[in-house]
Amino acid sequence: MSTTPNILDKIIAQKRLEVGERKELYPVRLLEKSLYFESTPVSMRKYIQRPDLSGIIAEFKRKSPSKGIINAHAPVERTTIGYMQAGASALSVLTDKPFFGGSNEDLTLARRFNFCPIIRKDFTIDEYQVLEAKSIGADAILLIAAVLTPAESKTLATLAHSLGMEVLLEVHDEAELQANLEVGADMIGVNNRNLKTFEVSIEISKRLAPLIPASVVKVSESGISSPETIRILREVGYEGFLMGENFMKHSRPEKAALEFIEQLTARV
Ligand SMILES: O=C(O)c1ccccc1NCC(=O)[C@H](O)[C@H](O)COP(=O)(O)O
C-alpha cells in the first residue's frame, strides 16, 4: 500500500498561513464590494437533478498531490465553456494554488463565461473563505469532514446558506458521515479517494449510499473514468459525479468530456 503521510495536514497548515495573509490583503470590507457579492447563486443541487443534464460535475484541475501535473496548459475559458456545452451539470474549479495549481482568478474567469453552477473546490477552514467564495462568484462551497469538526462544518454551512450558496459536504467513511448528518449540507459527496493513502475505490460510494438521507443529493467523487461506473453509481442512488483527472489528462479536456457524456447518454 502506497502511503503519503499527512498530505491533508500539510495542506491545512499551508491554508492557515494563506488565509491569514489574504485576510490582511483583502479584508472583508473589500470582498463585500465585489460585484458577485450581491449576485444570486445558481442551485447546484437543482442542476445535478436536471434530467436533461448528465449529473457530471466537471472539474478544472491542473495538478494534484496524487498525480502531480495533470494539465498545465488547458485554458480556463475554453475548457469550462466546453464542459458546459458537453452536458456537464456543474463546474468544479480548484482555487488552491500550492497543491492544485489553481487560483481565485480561475474561478472568476469560469464565472464570467458560464451560467451553470460553480463550486469552489478548496480546503475551507475559516469563515473568511466562505465570504471569499461568494466574492469570486461561486455558487457552492466544499466542506471536507476529515479536516473540520461537525460544529465547524455547521458554522461554515450556515454562513454559506446565509449568502445563498449551497454546500457539498465530503465524507470518506461511515463515522464521518454519521457525525455530520446535522450539518445541513445540500449535497453529500463520498470521496472514493482516501486522502491519506490516495487509494481509489468506488466500493466506498456503494457502501455509504444507503446511509445518506434521501433528502440530500448524493455525489460520488474521484476516480470515475467510465460511463459504466456512473451507471453502477446511479443504481445505488447517486445523482452527481465529480470528475477531474479523467478529462483534464487530455490536451482538450472539453472534447474528452463531450465524448464521455455522449457514450453515457448512448448507454442509458
Ligand atoms: O486529488 C488529489 O490528489 C487530492 C489530494 C488531497 C486532497 C484532495 C485531493 N483531490 C481533490 C478531489 O476531491 C478531486 O480533485 C476530485 O474528487 C476529482 O477527482 P478525480 O476525478 O480523481 O480527479
TrEMBL record:
Q: Which InterPro entries match?
A: Aldolase_TIM, Indole-3-glycerol_P_synth, Indole-3-glycerol_P_synth_dom, Indole-3-GlycerolPSynthase_CS, RibuloseP-bd_barrel
Q: What is this protein called?
A: Indole-3-glycerol phosphate synthase
Q: Quote the catalytic activity from the record.
A: 1-(2-carboxyphenylamino)-1-deoxy-D-ribulose 5-phosphate + H(+) = (1S,2R)-1-C-(indol-3-yl)glycerol 3-phosphate + CO2 + H2O
Q: Gene3D superfamilies annotated for this entry?
A: Aldolase class I
| A family per Pfam | IGPS
HAMAP family for the chain: IGPS_B
Name the pathway.
Amino-acid biosynthesis; L-tryptophan biosynthesis; L-tryptophan from chorismate: step 4/5
Every Indole-3-glycerol phosphate synthase domain range: 8-256
Family membership noted in the UniProt record: Belongs to the TrpC family.
Which keywords annotate this record?
Amino-acid biosynthesis, Aromatic amino acid biosynthesis, Decarboxylase, Lyase, Tryptophan biosynthesis
- BP term (GO), one: L-tryptophan biosynthetic process
CDD domains xref list: IGPS
Q: Does the keyword Transferase apply?
A: no
Enzyme Commission designation:
4.1.1.48
What is the native source organism of this protein? Dawidia cretensis
